[in-house]
Write a structure and sequence with these properties.
three-stranded antiparallel beta sheet; about 50% helix; about 160 residues; about 15% strand; alpha+beta; 5 helices; single chain
Length: about 160
Amino acid sequence: MKNHPTGRTAQSGIMLLEALIAILIFSLGILTLVALQATSIKLTGDAKYRTDATLLANRLIGQMWVSGGDLAALEAHFKTGGDAYNDWLSDAAKNGVKDRLPGVSDGTASTLPLVEVTLTPTSALVKITVFWRTPEMNAKEPGHRHIVTTQIAKNL
């Protein structure tokens, strides 16, 4: 007959194994929390950039609304390259838009905001596209864009 260990000798090392398994489970939980925190920070930064792009576009739309009722002048002045567009862009650059939206107004034509104005007899359809590239992105990545479309009616 074989002698089977009983008592303490049969249990030796089980406590150590249980402790190691508990430490492993705890460590996986902590790593999961760290990963969630990193994802949360990234998503918060992305939301900030989208908000800044919206504010930039809305500032231009506000300037369009108070510019007067002449739709042809609105198209000439506010479309990409117009004098009001250039004033808006330089004012935005002075107010730190380049810091808030990396890649915007850095002189590269592909990252400058685009403004399209389409005239109808009684209104103007305005489409503003703002581009930006987050600091983590490299120059080869396409970047982000935010499009705001609005209709500005003729003042009667």
